[in-house]
Write a structure and sequence with these properties.
alpha/beta, seven-stranded mixed β-sheet, globular
């Protein structure tokens, strides 16, 4: 008997497979198609020839843990202990899975704000816990009245994603005030903060749980080297959490993967000495603006994109088809693969919006929009 009877192939795999089948331009799955920094590739080549191929410490390569602590201090003015508060993970997804498995008990409730990334619910179900899916407002901001009404003494974790995938929204100071109020009401409540796009924000700067003194002692923060450094295939990220939470997470991590790929940790440790993460926002803002200017020539209506490398667009003025049917038609008839929003909702809510990934080179974006102009 299946533990996850309702889980099927993810929408990301489906759309990428269709893109391959129809030789469509793939703006669906969230991976860059431009070259990785030569300095990073050269570092991998160097370490591949050295004797660094055995297990590293379970928590991570000690110099890399130090670099993460330094980056956290520089970015958010938070001092963390690299030995107790930081864990290198096999991608952000493993970090999320290990955290939920470690901190959630059977019958606990976990709040997930939809539209949400599909890796949140499964580890909750595998804990025999109860996922509570709550829709964001129509403008994709949190509805704190609804969230507060759903919250109760059984609520163990609220999962937040900021900057948000799929919509590119970022949280405001008021959102964090509302979250602090909830934690004051429920002393057993924890926060799992997915911040994998933290360095990809634009006009307004990202606000991190790392900056919130009243929240961070009850929060696990998820980060991603894969997203920040355009190396999604490396599957490497990290967690930051206070020692009393991290101690439990490490118990799961050590039996899930034990330790993360050694060469990637050595290479990223080198790279962090030369990369300026604050430049990432500028890099992607140029791509966002380039892509948005192109899309203005189409019939799509563009929603704000405040962070991440995703652009949401409404096709309501084009047709009234379901988003899944519309995205499949874009692939088969127009040669462009995108992602519908309804699979991000527990109730498959129809918003008549789709998601584009603009982490692509300019030629790819331009060719895609030329096809979309035929709509």
């Amino acid at each position: 008997m299946s533990k996850l009877p309702h889980i099927t192939t993810s929408i990301f795999s489906i759309m990428s497979q269709m893109a391959n089948e129809y030789k469509a331009i793939n703006l669906s799955q969230g991976f860059p198609n431009f070259p990785v920094d030569e300095r990073l590739k050269n570092s991998v080549a160097k370490w591949a020839k050295e004797e660094v191929h055995q297990y590293l410490p379970m928590s991570g390569f000690p110099p890399l843990l130090e670099k993460i602590a330094t980056l956290t201090q520089k970015s958010y003015y938070r001092k963390v202990n690299p030995l107790t508060d930081v864990l290198v993970t096999a991608g952000a997804t493993e970090g999320i899975f290990a955290s939920i498995q470690a901190l959630v008990n059977p019958k606990d409730e976990v709040l997930i704000l939809d539209p949400s990334y599909d890796c949140y619910e499964t580890p909750v179900l595998l804990c025999n816990a109860i996922p509570k899916r709550i829709n964001l407002n129509d403008d994709f901001t949190p509805n704190w009245e609804v969230i507060g009404n759903v919250m109760n003494s059984k609520t163990r974790i609220i999962i937040i994603n900021n900057p948000h995938n799929p919509t590119g929204k970022i949280w405001t100071e008021n959102d964090f005030i509302q979250l602090e109020n909830l934690l004051n009401l429920y002393p057993n409540l924890l926060v799992l903060s997915d911040e994998v796009y933290e360095y990809i924000t634009f006009e307004n700067k990202h606000i991190s749980i790392n900056q919130k003194i009243n929240l961070r002692n009850r929060s696990v923060i998820v980060s991603s080297f894969g997203k920040s450094f355009h190396i999604t295939g490396w599957k490497i990220g990290y967690l930051i959490a206070p020692e009393h939470l991290m101690k439990e997470i490490k118990k799961v991590h050590q039996f899930l993967v034990f330790s993360v790929n050694s060469i990637s940790q050595y290479a990223i440790n080198d790279y962090m000495e030369v990369i300026q993460v604050e430049e990432l926002g500028k890099f992607y803002q140029q791509k966002r603006d380039f892509f948005r200017n192109l899309l203005e020539q189409t019939k799509f209506d563009l929603l704000p994109c405040e962070g991440s490398y995703f652009q949401i667009a409404s096709y309501a003025s084009i047709c009234d088809a379901s988003d899944l049917d519309f995205t499949k038609k874009l692939v088969t008839d127009y040669g462009v693969a995108t992602i519908p929003l309804s699979p991000f909702y527990a109730d498959a809510k129809q918003t008549q919006c789709i998601r584009f990934c603009f982490a692509k080179d300019e030629t790819t974006l331009q060719n895609a929009v030329e096809l979309l102009m035929k709509l």
